[in-house]
Design a protein that fits this description.
By secondary structure, this protein is mainly α. It has one domain. The protein contains six helices and no strands. The chain has helices at 3-27, 40-48, 51-71, 76-79, 85-98, 104-122. Helix 1 packs antiparallel against helix 3 (51-71), helix 1 packs parallel to helix 5 (85-98) and helix 5 (85-98) runs antiparallel to helix 6 (104-122). The longest helix is centred in the first third of the chain and has 25 residues, at 3-27. It is globular. It starts with a helix and ends with a helix. 18% of the residues are buried.
Length: 123
């Protein structure tokens, strides 16, 4: 995999991870959402009224575009495991931004993911 291809794949992963973090930031002020037919439309309007939600959706759109370019350059069996890096990025960012707990088991899992991605990228 060339550096340019890796950067396309990594950018897609980071945009996807950023989208998740923005979506979380957007729903935090809303509290727990309930989904019922009677409140569905007002809930959708309320969610879509949050700027982080819109930004997160935009990141998803961008990530798909960048990902498609990356997939045009490398096998999907090489690119797809790279998405696992998003778990590591999100866990670390959620710890930093939202105060989420990173216990020993999560840290061990993150290390395993990093090792797995490294091995898969070398295969």
């Amino acid at each position: 995999m060339t550096l340019t291809t890796f950067l396309f794949i990594l950018t897609g992963v980071l945009l996807n991870a950023g989208a998740q973090l923005l979506l979380k930031a957007g729903v935090r002020p809303l509290g727990t959402l309930t989904v019922e037919w009677s409140t569905l439309l007002p809930t959708v309007v309320q969610v879509l009224g949050q700027w982080p939600i819109i930004a997160g959706l935009a990141c998803y759109v961008l990530s798909v575009g960048v990902w498609i370019v990356g997939l045009s350059r490398v096998d999907v069996s090489v690119a797809y495991p790279m998405l696992s890096l998003g778990y590591v990025v999100n866990a670390a960012a959620a710890w930093y931004l939202f105060g989420e707990v990173l216990g020993p088991m999560r840290l061990a899992g993150m290390l395993l993911i990093l090792a797995g991605v490294f091995v898969m990228s070398r295969a």
